[in-house]
Specification:
12 strands, MutS, DNA mismatch repair protein, domain I, Alpha-Beta Plaits, nucleotidyltransferase, transferase, 13 helices, single chain, alpha+beta, five-stranded mixed beta sheet
Length: 366
Amino acid sequence: MIMRIIAHLDMDAFFAAIEERDNPQFKGLPIVVGADPKGGRGRGIVSTANYKAREYGIRSALPISKAWLFSEEAARKGKPRAAFLPVDFDKYSRVSEEIMAIIHGYSSVVEEASIDEAYLDLSLAGSYERAKEVCEKIKKEIKEKERITASIGIGPNKLIAKIASDSQKPDGLTIIGSDDETTCRELVERFLEPLSIRKIPGIGPKTEARFHALEIKTVKDLKKFSRKQLEEMLGKWGIELYEKVRGRDESPLQEVWIPKSIGEQETFEKDTLNADFIFSRLKVICQNVFRRFSESGFQSFRTVTLTVRFADFQTFTRSQTLSAPTNTAQIFQFEAMKLIMPFLDRRQNPRNKPFRLLGVRVEKLE
């Protein structure tokens, strides 16, 4: 039986790294890729921040206005201001294609998980030492050809490989495993136990807070719960979590990526309660989403989901699952309109808060 060896490659601050490479004047500076900060009045969020910008507290998904404030605060302390650059998805996609081509040259089984990360099955390498050599070659080729760096984690499954790739960034190579099965299990559990429970994929802020209330902060703490206890607390996810905290993961590499949803969202230039404006933007978003759905190759969808974010950043998501699959723009837009109506009156917006962001997506694609 062939021993399973999986690698996870994650590009380091991908968008920002490309911009730093292509704009020598910004070399060595904190770089933020995202919306225009407009002197602290900008809308939208940070898409990517390089590691120098992260030292200022700037992270992905942070409101761009806060990122600007953090940059100004650093400047007052004598540090360089961050360079704020717009997102160029076309350029990033081209670089991603080159990187994925390099990866495919080293493994016949590759899951392209996103624009800047991929899983590789290196089981045919036959040993962790040989898998390490392969990954060193991949990192070297990417650095030579694209002049940016990647971090790679190697382990017995996707779960461990992904967590490992994040443990020594940037430009890291982390191996958690052994050719001996018993030793491999021991290494995996020893690696996981001291980690924060947030390192386990699927544990978000709410679940973390729930466990923290029980004095559960590390993976080792979480292992005190039995399978039955976790199932009673979290349902089916509790059973999966029981396996994950022990480093067990049998999920296969998905060579053909199938999207679970197609959506779009828009952050308004100004917070607003103008119903005509909100309806007009909702219509445009629906048209854009439906066009992408039509081009995707899917035949139908069953669920329409609306996201509303108010000026105070309170965010709500509402969904409607249809009785039968559909593929018509009229039904899609009608359902989206029904979902937004309660947010325009006291049913879902009793304090009459203005809208900051609006998003719509279709799910349960067939």
